[in-house]
Task: inverse folding
C-alpha cells in the first residue's frame, strides 16, 4: 500500500521564500504569513493522509456502481465527503456571503494539490462542484446565486459540467443537445452528454448540472450554444427540494483509472433547465473559468507525480538489490538499497526536480489568477491566459511521465496492482485528456495565445525572464553559471521558436501548428527553469542569512542544478523539431498512413 | 473494438528491399524468396487477425481464474491454442528432429511481431515455452532433449522460466530457493518464485518449469545458482505422464495489463527437479538465450505500438472534429477528419516513423542472431550482444510512449476501456520491466557491453555506420542532405558520449552510469537512423528501377525524412545530459529525497 505525506515544508518554501506572499499587495495576501499558511497546510495535509489517501486504493478496486438509476461511490467515500464538508474545505476560496472563507485561490491551489495527490477520484466530486459554482458566481442572476451557491459552496449539493457528446468533444459547435424555451422562462433540455465526471452519486441531496445546449432556432455552430442550470432535483421557490427532474444516468463508463469517480453518460429527456448568463454566450461563460479549471488539472499532473515519487523514494531506500559500483554502502546487509544506483538516482532526480519546479510554477500561476481577479491587473490576466495551456499541457504530460518513472523504480512490483504504483499512472493519464486534450492546449497556445493582445503577454513573459537574469547577473559565480546562463539559453531557444512561427506561420499556418506541441513543452521547460532560478536564489539567500535547516536549502540548490543541466536543455531539441517545419509532418496523403 | 491487420507489405519491404535476405549467405536464407516469405506472413497474419486478435479484449476483461489449484485462462484461449499447435507455429524455428520447421529466427521474429501485436498475453504462453525449450536444446542431455523437446516444440507441453523471488529480481545471487541432491541423481526443489508468466493453465498436458535454485552446500551468491527442469507432472521412463510433482500455484497476481496471461506465485515444496546443464552454472545457461529473449521483448514494444498506431490512424480518419486551418477538406461533412490537424499528424508520424524504423532494426537484429548461430560468425555475435540491451530498452520505452500517443489521438474515448486503446498502453507497460528492467539494460550496455571484447563490437558498429555513409555520399543530393548528414551527426554524438565515458567513467564509474539511460536511448536513435537511411536508399532504388507501387516508396522516403528531422536530433540532448556527469545525479544524500 502506498503512503502519502503532504509536502508542507516545500509548499511553505515556495509560498514564503520564493513568492514572498505576505509581502504582496494582492488583496488578502497580507494575511498569509508563515504561521497562518502552516496551520492550513498542516490541517489539509492531515485530512489528506488520514481520510482521503486510505480510500484511494479502495476507490480504484471497487469503482462505482449503478443500481436502479442510482450511482453508489466506493465504500467510505460518503463518510469522507461528510468530513470534507464539516471541515469547510470545499468553500475555501468562495465568497463569505455564500458560506465560503474567501481565501486566495493560491491557498485552495496548495490544498488542492494535497487532495488530488491523496485521492484524485474523490477530490473531483468537490472539484467539479467548485467549477460549477464558479460559473454561477460569475454569470448567475442574484436569485440563481442565492438558490444554488450556499448549498454548493458547502457541497451539500454538488455540481457537474456537461459539454461533450458522443460525436463532439473539442468541436462543440456540432452539439445536438437542444433547449426549448418554455412560457415560464425555463427551457426543456433534451440530449445526451458523455464523460460527465461526478455525474451522479448518493453523497449529496442534489446535483446541479451545468449543461451546454443549443436553443432551438438560434444560430448554427458554436455561436448558438448556451449554458443551462439543470438540477437533478428541482428546487422550490422556498429553497426546498421538489420533484425529480428528467435527467438520468444512462451508463457508467469503465475507465483506465479514476475508478472512484463516477463518469456518466447523462440523458436529458426534456429536463427543466434555466439559462445561465446570456443566450448563445455559453462558450464565453465556460471560458471564464477555464484558466482556473486548467490550472487545477495541471495541478493533478503534479499531484500524481508527487505521490508516486514519494513512494518511489521509500521503495528505493528499502529495496536491497546489488551493490554500489563505488563500494558497498550497506556492508552489513545482503545488498545495498537501490537508491545507491546511478540510474535509480537519475530517475528520482527527474521526478524530484519536476515536482518541485512544477509546484512553484503552479503556485506562481495561482498568484497571477489572484492578481488578475483581486487586483484587476490586466497584465497578470494576460500572462496567466498565456501560461494556462502550458500549465495544463506541460504539467500533465510530464506528471504522467514521472508516474511512469516512479512505477519503474519498483521493477516487477510496479506492475502488480497490489503495490499501488499502477494506479498513479492510470489516474494521471486522464489529466492529459480532459479539460481540453493536450494537443488542443498546444493549439490554443500557438494559434491563439501567442498573438493575443498584439503579443503583449508573450513579450511580457520574455521581459520578465530577461529582467530576472539581468538583476541576478552579479550573483555568486556558480549560481550565474548553473542557473542564469542555462535559463538565458533556454529562453533564447523559446524566442527563436516564436520568431520561426512569426516568419513561417503567417503564410503557412501548418508551419506553426506542426510545432505547437514542441512549443508548449519548451515553454514549460523555460517556466520551470525560471522557477528553479528563483528557487535557487531563495535558497542562496536563506543560506546566507543563516538557517536552522541548511540541508533543505542545499538540496534545493542541487536539485535546481540537476534541472538546469539535465532537463532544461530539452529546449534545443524542441527548437530543432519546430524549425524543421511542416513539410515532413503534413507530406503524406491520408491514405498513405 | 480495435482491429489489427498484419503489416505484411512493410515486412516484405524490410526483408527483401532492405535486408535482401534471399541473397544472404546465412544458411537457410537462400530459401527466403519473396513468394515464400509472403506465404508464411500471409498465413500468420490471418491467424493473428482472425483467431488471436478477437481474444485480446476478452483476455483483458476476463483475466485468468485460479480455482482449486487450477488456472483457467480466458474464454477461447484453449481453442485458439489448439489452432496454433495445429498450424505448427510454436516450432517454426525449432530443429526438425524435434518436430520443428528449422526456419531462421528472422522468420519467427516477423511472425512473432504479428502474434504479439494481436494478442500479447496469449502469445506469451508459447513464447515462454519457446524460451524454455531453447534452454533445454542448448544445455540439456540427449535424454532430456528426447523427453521434453518434441512435446514442447509442438506446445503439447508448455514451459516457464522461474527466476524472481519476493526479495530478489535483478540481484539473483540473493536467491533462497534450494535444491537438495537425491540418491537417484535428481534434486528436491524448495522455495517460492514470483512473477511466473504462463505459470499454470489447463491448455497443455504438462508444464515444464525451468527453475533457478541453489544446490545445498554450493558457493554463495550468484556463483551457486543452478538451473533445474521441474515438470508439473513427472514423466515416466516411457515418456508417459506419471505423478503430480510438488509444485503448486500460490496465487495469481492482479496486474496492470496482460490479464490474459497467468502471472503466478509458484511454490516448490520438495518438488523433483533435474539439473539442466552444469552445477552452479545456472546463470550462464540463462544468458545463452538472453539475446533472443530480449529481442523478443523489444519486439513486443514495437508490436503494441504498431497495433495501437493502426487504430489511431483509423480513428483519425473517421472522427470529424474541427476544420483544417488551410481550408475545409471535407466540405460536405459537418467537420473534417482529425487527421487534417497538424498536431494529430505529428503524433501519427512519430508513431509511424518509430514502428517502421523499429521493425527494420529488430529484423536486422534477428539476422545477426541467425548469422551468429547459423554461420558461427563471431563478429555478428559481438554486434548483437552489444545491440541487445538497445533493442530491448529502446524499443519497449519508445513502443510504450507510442501506445500512449495513439491513445491520446482518441481523446476521451482513449480513456474508456471499451475502445481498447487503454489496453495497448497497459499491456505495453510490462515490456519495459520484465526480462531485465530497462535501467538494467542500460547498465548492461554501458557497464558491460561497451567494453566487451576490448570494445570491438562498438567499434564495428561505428565502422558500419561510417562505411554506409561513405558509400552513399555520392547519392542523390536530397538523400544525402536528409538522411546521410543527420545520421553522421547523430553517430558523432554517440561517439562523443562513448568518449566521455572513456575519459570520465574509468576513474569515476558514476559518471558513466549516470548517463547510461541516455546512452541507451541515443544508441537506439542512431540505430533507427541507420535503418531509415538504409530504407530510404532502398526506396530510392525501387523508384529508380520503376515500381508498380510508387506511393509506398515515396511514403517511405517522407517518413524517413520525418524521423531524421524530428526524432534523430534527440541524440544531442542525450549527449548534453551525459556530459553533465554524475555530480547533480549523485549529489544528494539519501535522506534528502
Result:
Amino acid at each position: 500500500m502506498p503512503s502519502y505525506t503532504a509536502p508542507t515544508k516545500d509548499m511553505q518554501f515556495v509560498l514564503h521564500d520564493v513568492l514572498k506572499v505576505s509581502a504582496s499587495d494582492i488583496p488578502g495576501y497580507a494575511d498569509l504569513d508563515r504561521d497562518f499558511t502552516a496551520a492550513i497546510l498542516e490541517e489539509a495535509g492531515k485530512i489528506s493522509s488520514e481520510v482521503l489517501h486510505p480510500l484511494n486504493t479502495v476507490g480504484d478496486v471497487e469503482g462505482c456502481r449503478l443500481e436502479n438509476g442510482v450511482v453508489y461511490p466506493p465504500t467510505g467515500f460518503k463518510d469522507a465527503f461528510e468530513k470534507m464538508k464539516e471541515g469547510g474545505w470545499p468553500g475555501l476560496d468562495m465568497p463569505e456571503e455564500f458560506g465560503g472563507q474567501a481565501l486566495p485561490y493560491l491557498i485552495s491551489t496548495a490544498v488542492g494539490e494535497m487532495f488530488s495527490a491523496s485521492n484524485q477520484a474523490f477530490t473531483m466530486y468537490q472539484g467539479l462542484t467548485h467549477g460549477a459554482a464558479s460559473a454561477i458566481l460569475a454569470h448567475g442572476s442574484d436569485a440563481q446565486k442565492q438558490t444554488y451557491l450556499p448549498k454548493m459552496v458547502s457541497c451539500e449539493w454538488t455540481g457537474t459540467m456537461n459539454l461533450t457528446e458522443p460525436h463532439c468533444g473539442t468541436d462543440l459547435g456540432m452539439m445536438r443537445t437542444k433547449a426549448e424555451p418554455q412560457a415560464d422562462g425555463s427551457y426543456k433540455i433534451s440530449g445526451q452528454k458523455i464523460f460527465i465526471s461526478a455525474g451522479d452519486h448518493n453523497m449529496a441531496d442534489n446535483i446541479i448540472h451545468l449543461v451546454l445546449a443549443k436553443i432551438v432556432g438560434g444560430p448554427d455552430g458554436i455561436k448558438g450554444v448556451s449554458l443551462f442550470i439543470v438540477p437533478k432535483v428541482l428546487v422550490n421557490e422556498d429553497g426546498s427540494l421538489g420533484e425529480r427532474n428528467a435527467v438520468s444516468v444512462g451508463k457508467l463508463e469503465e475507465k483506465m483509472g479514476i475508478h472512484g469517480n463516477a463518469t456518466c453518460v447523462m440523458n436529458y429527456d426534456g429536463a427543466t433547465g434555466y439559462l445561465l448568463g446570456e443566450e448563445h454566450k455559453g462558450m464565453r461563460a465556460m471560458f471564464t473559468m477555464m484558466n482556473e479549471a486548467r490550472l487545477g488539472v495541471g495541478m493533478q499532473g503534479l499531484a500524481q507525480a508527487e505521490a508516486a515519487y514519494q513512494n518511489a523514494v521509500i521503495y528505493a531506500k528499502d529495496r536491497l538489490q546489488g551493490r554500489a559500483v563505488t563500494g558497498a554502502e550497506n556492508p552489513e546487509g545482503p545488498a545495498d538499497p537501490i537508491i545507491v544506483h546511478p540510474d535509480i538516482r537519475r530517475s528520482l532526480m527527474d521526478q524530484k526536480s519536476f515536482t518541485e519546479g512544477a509546484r512553484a510554477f503552479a503556485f506562481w500561476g495561482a498568484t497571477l489568477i489572484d492578481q488578475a481577479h483581486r487586483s484587476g491587473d490586466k497584465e497578470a490576466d494576460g500572462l496567466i491566459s498565456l501560461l494556462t495551456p502550458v500549465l495544463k499541457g506541460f504539467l500533465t504530460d510530464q506528471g504522467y511521465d514521472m508516474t511512469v518513472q516512479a512505477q519503474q523504480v519498483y521493477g516487477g512490483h510496479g506492475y502488480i496492482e497490489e503495490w499501488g504504483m499502477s494506479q498513479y499512472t492510470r489516474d494521471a493519464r486522464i489529466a492529459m485528456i480532459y479539460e481540453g486534450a493536450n494537443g488542443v492546449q498546444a493549439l490554443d497556445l500557438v494559434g491563439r495565445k501567442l498573438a493575443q493582445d498584439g503579443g503583449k503577454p508573450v513579450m511580457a513573459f520574455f521581459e520578465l525572464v530577461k529582467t530576472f537574469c539581468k538583476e541576478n547577473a552579479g550573483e555568486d559565480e556558480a549560481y550565474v553559471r548553473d542557473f542564469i546562463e542555462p535559463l538565458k539559453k533556454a529562453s533564447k531557444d523559446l524566442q527563436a521558436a516564436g520568431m520561426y512561427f512569426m516568419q513561417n506561420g503567417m503564410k503557412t499556418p501548418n508551419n506553426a501548428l506542426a510545432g505547437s506541441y514542441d512549443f508548449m513543452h519548451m515553454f514549460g521547460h523555460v517556466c520551470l527553469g525560471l522557477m528553479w532560478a528563483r528557487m535557487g536564489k531563495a535558497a542562496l539567500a536563506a543560506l546566507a542569512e543563516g538557517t536552522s535547516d541548511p540541508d533543505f536549502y542545499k538540496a534545493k540548490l542541487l536539485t535546481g542544478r540537476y534541472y538546469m543541466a539535465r532537463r532544461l536543455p530539452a529546449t534545443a531539441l524542441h527548437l530543432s523539431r519546430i524549425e524543421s517545419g511542416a513539410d515532413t509532418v503534413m507530406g503524406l496523403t491520408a491514405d498513405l498512413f
